[in-house]
Amino acid sequence: MLKLLKLLKDGRFHSGEALGAALGVSRSAVWKQLQHLEGELNLPIHKVRGKGYQLAAPLFLLDAEEIGANAPSLAWPIHIFDSIDSTNAEALRLIGGACNTPFLVLAEQQSAGRGRRGRKWVSPFAQNIYYSLVLRIEGGLRQLEGLSLVVGLAVMQTLQNAGVQNAGLKWPNDVLVGPKKIAGILLELVGDPADICHVVLGIGINVNMQSAADVDQQWTSVHLETGASINRNCLVAQLGMQLQHYLERHRAFGFSALQQEWESSHLWRGRAVSLIAGVNQVDGVVLGIDSQGALRLGVSGVEKIYSGGELSLRLRDDS
Questions:
Q1: All domains in the chain, ordered by first residue
Q2: Which residue, among 130, 132, 52, 53, has the nearest Cα to 92 in the 3D structure?
Q3: Whole-prediction pTM value?
């Protein structure tokens, strides 16, 4: 089925006869595979008598060689999957299998993509970026301070370079365009954070997605913001270059060196929010972040500091 998809990915018409010849199957077998593509991968296919079959839009399938050609300074091994439960889950399995780090896991589709606090991450086939970079962290907790915010800066810069000029940051790990989410970050850690550990930098970016009935919040994509289909290989390469740049600065100087840059793109500064931690909720006004990446929240006129992986922010109705 994926061989057929690779023949159709250019978005042009292909006759059933030509497709059958290329695949070494009958035209009826081609027809059955086309039905599977539409049903299983939710890819609309135009069928026109006398012309043949055409994908509703061209596809840019992930290709390690093309990614490497666009980011020659990166030497990360790349593991690409057609479909997987989640790239973070596979990255954690590969850590357990003693893979050398750093390495990158990508997928065309996730069957169990997830965001923070166990939320589902909608992952249609070959439309978005599902990205997990694994790093070995040595030197203790300082190397982890503000790390999700550092990744957010790299993602935001990648999107701005791709034409999404209004992309900005929401603490602790979302990239938004106005009120709409365009990217999310999920960091997972294995080992002793005070000594030596591995961290998975999980990143999901809405790239060419134009409709999604299952998303439970406002969202947008690079295509919706720019009006153009994006070659995901180029975007993956640019993301890798930006991550390399920001991670090197973070490793050399700590998060404090990036604090002001992050604050300059902080979309919810001054907004009235609810901070949610499990069943507990704290209402306040966002003051900013501190030099370690923690949230500064004004609560009843008193500044309080919050940090931690299971915290979530929501705008209050009166914001």
A1: 2-55 (1.10.10.10), 64-263 (3.30.930.10), 272-315 (2.30.30.100)
A2: 132
A3: 0.90
